[in-house]
Write a structure and sequence with these properties.
Elements: E1 7-13, H1 29-33, H2 41-57, E2 62-65, H3 73-78, H4 85-95, H5 98-104, E3 115-118, E4 128-132, H6 139-142, H7 145-155, E5 162-164, E6 182-185, E7 194-199, H8 218-228, E8 233-237, H9 240-244, E9 254-257, E10 260-264, H10 270-281, E11 287-291, H11 298-304, E12 310-312, E13 322-327, H12 328-332, H13 334-345, E14 351-357, H14 360-363, E15 373-378, H15 380-385, H16 394-407, H17 420-436
Parallel strand pairs: 1-2, 4-5, 7-8, 10-11, 13-14
Antiparallel strand pairs: 1-15, 3-4, 6-7, 9-10, 12-13
Bound molecules: N~2~-(3-carboxypropanoyl)-L-arginine.
Length: 450
């Protein structure tokens, strides 16, 4: 199916007031390195909003997904902590303090893991499809999907245009981490494209070859493609070498958009990659941009998060004039900086501009610019059907930044999560967000239902 006037809209996760460094994500080197460091939630959220402002200033349509309600007391209740909210917090702090970090995690900020999205040009029923990721590999993220589903239903509530599914079953065989492992490749946004699904393990994978978890499974990717009526799907396995070096998602070692796929030499086993590329070439004029390990080592790629840059077509959708929104860490890493400088000189590839953005608070938990956003390709009609509360202009960014400044702490340690006063603060912040967004009548958060 071909539709005109389609564009890619980035929906960034608005970073919540409970952003902290819990050391919760094994295989994510930054999360382990920064475990238990004091975070700055206020700076984190302001950095995220400034990144959104950068895209708006460059002429892109930008949306956001609100932070989830944290702490998730329903999870503590299921674990046997009952009673009034503040009692649940204090008894958990006494009996099992490690659970507080799990239920307070602001990890829903990494919207690239919120869901997998299939644009209407690629689905069988002409609607945009969303499947929330079950994120079952880590406990603090496995609790996200019920609220993700509710939020997606609030943002994309029009069932004539959008289909929001439930997550695939939270069973080990179906580990799903969402769009971070899914790249939609196409000639132009309105044309039918291909879903490239990258997975870390399948039934044949020798698990002893993985020192870190292969979070995405082939079975989950297949289920999502089936559920979305994805017309053309291609599957490719991540190299164990990449996972073991800290590429816990494909978007740590590859990024694609339009006809371009940029990837690290060691992201995939060479023969498997060639086969997948050959299949893709049957559907579109694929351009591949391989970054060689001699130029940028896997370690430098993972430290700098070069591949977690946002790869964007020009604001008017021109795929021959692309840009990278890269983390500042790429400018500071000499091998990566040199690669970028060389790439910009090379007009055989389409990247023409690079903007560096400071998202260090998120980077310290292993989330770069691309982790922070969920890409949704929308036609004019579909864009008009999105809940306008979640679409941004600079004035609304100012309003959200004021909201952050009113409510967020500039220092947060894991020990602070036991403080009942902190619980009151974050609930007040979310209540105020509902007011600021004019969403009082809509059941966005669980607390609005009780
Ligand atoms: O799932 N970090 C996230 C980072 C997700 C990045 N997303 C993409 N690559 N798309 C994760 O590992 C750390 C939380 C902590 O340790 O407090 C965390 O969950």
């Amino acid at each position: 199916m071909t539709t005109t006037n389609a564009r890619e809209v980035n929906f960034d996760g608005l970073i919540g007031p409970t952003h902290h460094y819990g050391g919760l994500a094994s295989g994510n080197l930054a999360s382990s390195r920064n475990a238990l460091r004091t975070s700055n939630p206020r700076e984190a959220a302001l950095q995220g909003l400034e990144k959104m402002r950068t895209l708006i200033k460059l002429g892109y349509t930008q949306g956001f997904l609100p932070p989830q309600q944290r702490p998730d007391l329903s999870v503590l209740s299921q674990l046997g902590f009952r009673g009034p909210d503040e009692h649940i917090i204090s008894s958990t702090a006494q009996q099992a303090p490690e659970l507080l970090s799990m239920v307070y995690s602001a990890s829903s900020m990494w919207a690239a893991n919120a869901a997998t999205v299939t644009p209407s040009a690629d689905s069988s029923d002409g609607r945009v499809h969303f499947t929330p990721a079950n994120l079952l590999t880590t406990a603090h993220r496995a609790i996200e999907h019920p609220q993700t589903e509710r939020i997606l239903n609030t943002v994309f509530g029009n069932s004539d245009h959008f289909a929001v599914h439930s997550a695939v079953p939270s069973i080990g065989r179906f580990g799903d981490e969402g769009a971070a492992n899914h790249t939609r490749l196409c000639t132009s946004y309105g044309d039918a494209g291909v879903g490239l699904f990258v997975y870390g393990r399948d039934d044949q994978t020798d698990l002893s070859s993985l020192t870190f978890p292969g979070r995405q499974t082939l079975a989950a990717s297949e289920a999502v493609a089936r559920q979305h009526g994805t017309q053309t799907a291609v599957y490719l396995q991540q190299a164990a070498q990449a996972i073991n070096a800290g590429a816990f998602h494909n978007d740590v070692v590859a990024v694609g958009n339009g006809p371009l796929l940029m990837y690290h030499q060691h992201a995939y086993q060479a023969q498997a990659a060639e086969q997948a590329f050959e299949t893709l070439r049957a559907y579109l004029p694929l351009q591949t941009l391989c970054v060689n390990a001699d130029d940028v080592s896997l370690q430098d790629a993972i430290k700098s998060y070069l591949f977690n840059s946002q790869l964007l077509a020009s604001a008017d959708g021109d795929m021959s004039k692309m840009r990278l929104i890269a983390p500042s860490e790429c400018e500071e890493n000499s091998a990566v900086r040199k690669w970028i400088e060389r790439a910009l000189q090379d007009h055989n590839q389409p990247i023409r501009n690079v903007e560096f953005v400071d998202v260090r608070q998120s980077m310290s938990n292993g989330g770069g610019p691309a982790c922070l956003r969920l890409r949704v390709v929308l036609t004019d009609e579909q864009l008009a059907a999105v809940n306008p509360a979640f679409l941004l202009d600079e004035a609304k960014i100012d309003v959200l930044q004021d909201w952050v400044k009113r409510h967020y702490r500039d220092q947060l340690s894991v020990a602070d999560l036991a403080d009942v006063q902190f619980y009151r603060e974050v609930m007040t912040a979310l209540e105020d967000l509902i007011t600021v967004l004019g969403l009082k009548g809509q059941a966005l958060y669980p607390f609005q239902l009780s």
